């Protein structure tokens, strides 16, 4: 019995290794090889078991010994067949998870390629305007800040989580560019608690919201507007808001079906859906003299802090 068990363990190890390699082959070849593996392993274990048991019987083994134990051959083949089915299911689950991960990464990469060219177009257009107005110093400063911004964000992984504090630094780098363009017309306020700053957020998730506020709140008005960015942790949920309101009472039309705002907001919402499912969301609404965008995230995923 001990000999049969030891042989079975060795064969099981061999079958596991061979199955892992075989499943990577084309389907027809892998099925044929797996069937051969089941037959060979089951037959070999049956032969070893029969010979070991027959050797303990007076007269040794005979053909009748194999005939008596023929049902063991079926049992051993079923045993190895079940093992291969389990291994195939595990491999299939891993492959599916890997494909889903690759799909998510591809979706995030596609969203990134949509956002960056749009932002670059807006900035280059602003630089062109400054040059046409013969404001060379401001244009040169904007180009330098644009280079700094892309240096910090070009290689950012959109699927990665970063502390909110680092994300706010990226937002400030973007605002530095727009400050050259709008000057005193752009006012920004930050309001956040200590826990929110170290909580994790998707990389580059806030810049499209701030860009949306500038496009529809600051750019259309002579007096400009104020952008307020807040972040708070409430009951295991991180709530981030980007709100804009007019510096003076001047009506504005917040449309979000245009190329810039619509694309930016849709990308943010889609990224949250892709990364968090129903747990992450983007809510937008008009408010008095302005517009409010609210991001809700679970802090349990990738958070950088722990309660004492």
Give an overview of the whole structure.
- The chain has helices at residues 2-22, 27-54, 63-68, 70-132, 136-153, 164-182, 194-198, 207-218, 259-276; strands spanning 161-163, 186-192, 200-202, 225-233, 237-246, 281-287, 290-298.
- It has 308 residues and is of the alpha+beta class.
- The protein starts with a helix and ends in a 10-residue tail after the last strand.
- The model is unreliable at 249-261 and 304-308 (pLDDT under 50).
- A hairpin with a 2-residue loop joins strand 6 (281-287) and strand 7 (290-298).
- The radius of gyration is 32 Å and the shape is elongated.
- It has nine helices and seven strands; from the N terminus they run H-H-H-H-H-E-H-E-H-E-H-E-E-H-E-E.
- It has two domains: 2-96, no CATH class; 135-298, Heat Shock Protein 90 (2-Layer Sandwich), CATH 3.30.565.10.
CATH architecture of the largest domain: 2-Layer Sandwich
List low-confidence stretches: 249-261, 304-308
And the CATH topology of the largest domain?
Heat Shock Protein 90
Mean pLDDT: 76
Using DSSP, what is the number of strands?
A: 7
What share of residues are in beta strands? 15-25%
- Outline, from the CA principal axes? elongated
CATH C-level category of the largest domain: Alpha Beta
> Secondary-structure element order, as H and E?
HHHHHEHEHEHEEHEE
Cα-to-Cα separation, first versus last residue: 56 Å
Count of DSSP-assigned helices: 9
Give a short account of the largest sheet. 5 strands, mixed
The count of domains is 2
Q: What structural category arises from helix and sheet content?
A: alpha+beta
- Sheet with most strands: strand arrangement: 2-4-5-7-6
Looking at this structure, what is the CATH superfamily of the largest domain?
A: Histidine kinase-like ATPase, C-terminal domain
Rg over C-alpha atoms, rounded to the nearest angstrom: 32 Å
């Amino acid at each position: 019995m001990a000999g049969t068990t030891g042989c079975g363990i060795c064969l099981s190890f061999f079958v596991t290794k061979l199955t892992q390699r075989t499943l990577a082959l084309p389907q027809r070849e892998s099925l044929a090889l797996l069937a051969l593996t089941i037959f060979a392993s089951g037959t070999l274990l049956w032969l070893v078991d029969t010979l070991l048991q027959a050797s303990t019987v007076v007269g040794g083994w005979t053909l009748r010994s194999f005939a008596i134990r023929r049902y063991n051959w079926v049992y051993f083949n079923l045993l190895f067949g079940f093992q291969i089915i389990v291994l195939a299911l595990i491999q299939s689950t891993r492959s599916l998870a890997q494909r889903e991960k690759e799909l998510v990464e591809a979706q995030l990469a596609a969203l990134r390629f949509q956002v960056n060219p749009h932002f670059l177009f807006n900035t280059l257009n602003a630089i062109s305007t400054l040059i046409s107005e013969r404001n060379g110093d401001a244009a040169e400063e904007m180009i330098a800040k644009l280079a700094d911004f892309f240096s910090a964000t070009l290689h950012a992984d959109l699927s990665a989580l970063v502390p909110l504090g680092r994300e706010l630094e990226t937002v400030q780098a973007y605002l530095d560019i727009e400050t050259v363009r709008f000057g005193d017309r752009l006012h920004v306020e930050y309001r956040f608690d200590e826990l929110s700053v170290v909580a994790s957020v998707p990389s580059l998730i806030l810049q499209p919201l701030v860009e949306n506020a500038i496009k529809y709140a600051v750019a259309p008005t002579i007096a400009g507007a104020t952008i307020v960015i807040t972040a708070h942790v409430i009951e295991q949920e991180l709530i981030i808001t980007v709100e804009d309101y007019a510096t003076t009472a001047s009506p504005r039309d917040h449309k979000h079906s245009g190329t810039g705002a619509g694309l930016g907001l849709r990308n943010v919402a889609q990224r949250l859906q892709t990364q968090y499912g129903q747990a992450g969301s983007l809510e937008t609404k008009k408010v008095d003299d302005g517009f409010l965008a609210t991001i809700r995230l679970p802090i349990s995923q990738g958070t950088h802090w722990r309660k004492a």
